Amino acid sequence: MSVTRSDWLVVVTGRPTPLLSAALTAARREGQEPEVVPVEAGSWDWLLEAVNRLATRQIRLVLALDGRSLVGACLANKVRGVRAATVETLDDARRALRELGANCLFANPQGKTWFELRQLLRLAAETQARCPEEIAKVLEELEGHANR
């Protein structure tokens, strides 16, 4: 991954679809500049770097548009400071950001409309993920029980 001044990533498996490319173009027109990271299907190398950047606060959010969202979120959640969630809808994304303070969202782009993709991008651009205090306490307690 190349380091840019953007503080959020959009990870795309394979080449962006025309709908996603159009949504990214619209985001850029509105002044939202994610670092777009195209990755090979089947590779998890990107995840290691992305979660390390989240954990060290080099970036504030990752939006992974990948069909393997359940596995990706499970792996990402192994890293302290990463709060990953899978989302299917915009309401899921809003709830994950608000209730969990998610800083890593996984969404399957298949079947999403241009509007849905654009709204996900807008939400990612405008949200500062903050872990609610009660969730932070539970995460801290669970850390002591981690079976790694």
Q: Could you characterize the architecture of this molecule?
A:
It is a single chain. The chain starts with 7 loop residues before the first strand and ends in a 5-residue tail after the last helix. It is globular, with a radius of gyration of 15 Å. The model has no long low-confidence stretch (mean pLDDT 86). The chain contains six helices and five strands; from the N terminus they run E-H-E-H-E-H-E-H-E-H-H. It has helices at residues 18-29, 45-55, 69-76, 90-100, 114-126, 133-143; strands spanning 8-13, 35-39, 61-65, 84-87, 104-107. It has a five-stranded parallel sheet, with helices on both faces. The protein has a single domain (8-143), classed as Ribose 5-phosphate Isomerase B, Chain: A (3-Layer(aba) Sandwich), CATH 3.40.1400.10. With 148 residues, it is α/β, with parallel strands linked by helices.
Task: Jot down its keywords.
single chain, 148 residues, alpha/beta, Ribose 5-phosphate Isomerase B, Chain: A, five-stranded parallel sheet
The end-to-end distance, rounded to whole angstroms, is: 27 Å
Q: Into which percentage range does the β-strand content fall?
A: 15-25%
- Biggest sheet strand line-up: 2-1-3-5-4
Count up the domains. 1
CATH fold annotation: Ribose 5-phosphate Isomerase B, Chain: A
Q: CATH-wise, what's the superfamily? A: Sugar-phosphate isomerase, RpiB/LacA/LacB
Order of helices and strands: EHEHEHEHEHH
Quaternary state of the chains = single chain
The global form is: globular
Task: Evaluate the radius of gyration.
Answer: 15 Å
Biggest sheet statistics? 5 strands, parallel
* Structural class estimated from helices and strands: alpha/beta
Main CATH class: Alpha Beta
What is the mean pLDDT? 86
Stretches with pLDDT under 50, minimum 5 residues = none
Supply the number of helical segments: 6
Known CATH architecture: 3-Layer(aba) Sandwich
- Count of β-strands: 5
Helicity level, as a percent range? 40-55%
